[in-house]
Amino acid sequence: MANETIKRDVVIIGSGPAGLTAAIYTARASLKPLLIDAPADAHKQTTPGGQLMITTDVENYPGFSKGIQGPELMEEFRRQAERFGTEFMETWITEVDLSERPFQLYTESQTISTETLIIASGASAKWLGIPGEAKVPNGFGGNGVSACATCDGPLPAFRNRTLVVVGGGDTAMEEATFLTRYAAKVYVVHRRDKLRASKIMQEKAFRNEKIEFIWNTAVQEILGSQEEGVTAVRLRNLQTGDEQIFPCSGVFVAIGHKPNTDLFKGQLDMDEVGYLKTSGHSTATDVPGVFAAGDVQDSVYRQAITAAGTGCMAAIDAERFLDHLPVAMPSGEEITDEGEHVTADHKAIITPDGHMIPNQEPQVEI
Ligand code: NDP
Question: Which of 51, 61, 120, 206 has an alpha carbon within 20 to 30 A of 339's alpha carbon?
Fold first, then answer.
């Protein structure tokens, strides 16, 4: 039972690039943000600091001409958020109530009540769950096994080598196509004889001479040594049952991502996969005062820099909302925290009691 209530103007969920950027901005705006993150849990795939904590070299984050290690970058983000007074809390949120403001977040022993909520709980790559896939030192994760070609593909270990991509969706086609810039050959291993990917992405991959497909096949195990990294995979043909050891230097698992939104089901609008829907003109969700940033609302770009960018947007949106300024909603209209609606065409304001007033000065004839 909750026995302590904490009150805040801004609560942020998640400590990846989106959450920490939102923290930096709201802390500098003197909003005293509370950032809540789940404790590290290998089974539930929670890692304070987010997906960059399981990445090695980050070469594409602007500002680091020589590259930086993922965990080091997140440590810098965190220090910057701390410097301006962000308060951190590591706990499991068990339930949320977003039906009215202030919103209520429940943990084992506390109720956290907040005027605005920034959700930056990220997405987790789906994994195959096979031997050799786990993070170093229990497997080759981070040392030849990756779920992000954009992050890891350009690393020297993968250049001019034979690589395996697992999956048959758009992500797999995109990763395979991207990897051909560096790799000698890319084999896409798919469990069926048909791809799920969109036609245009399939055709692009089929046309690429560096890509070959291995159909009706599952990767059973990733083989190698900690010194050499990945050296092969054990493949099993799902129709014949035949197995083979297939030499390769890297495995990219591209079987989809799962946004971390279970907590918000039935309370916030999401797409069929579970990504939170935001306005497009702002980070507003369909509940006024709740904003979403980073991979939890982005199935397309999924980069640290775009996550940080939307974290900044969410902070500014929350700030505007607390200052009673209108924020763009997914419907196209704008809404204030007092419940005023500005119509999508900006021509009228609807007050909380239902009155419509013009949003423009009357035209003066000259
Ligand atoms: P999808 O769910 O579309 O595809 C996942 C693929 O992985 C499927 O081919 C599936 O096989 C396979 N798979 C799933 N689980 C396993 C498993 N345990 N073992 C082996 N294979 C498995 O995910 P994506 O990430 O590809 O795409 C997600 C969404 O993001 C889609 O809507 C996509 O269109 C979009 N997207 C768009 C991009 C773009 O437009 N540039 C780029 C990337 C993604 P099966 O087919 O047999 O189910």
Answer: 120
Beta bridge partners of 113: 7, 104
pLDDT at 365 over 80: no
Higher local confidence (pLDDT), 51 or 365? 51
Ligand 1 centroid vs 173 CA: distance in angstroms? Answer: 9
Closest CA to 171 of 144, 128, 202: 202
User: For the purposes of burial, counting CB atoms within 10 Å of the CB of 37, is it exposed (0-12), middle (13-18) or buried (19 or more)?
Assistant: buried
Q: Mean pLDDT lowest for which of 49-53, 210-214, 332-336, 344-348?
A: 49-53
Distance separating alpha carbons of residues 274 and 266, to the nearest angstrom: 11
Are 161 and 248 in contact by the 8 Å Cβ rule? The answer is yes
β 185-189/211-214 pair status: parallel
CA separation for the pair 26, 321 (Å, rounded): 12
Query: Active-site residue among 9, 37, 148, 337?
Result: 148
Q: Whole-model pTM?
A: 0.78
pLDDT band at 2 (very low <50, low <70, confident <90, very high): very low
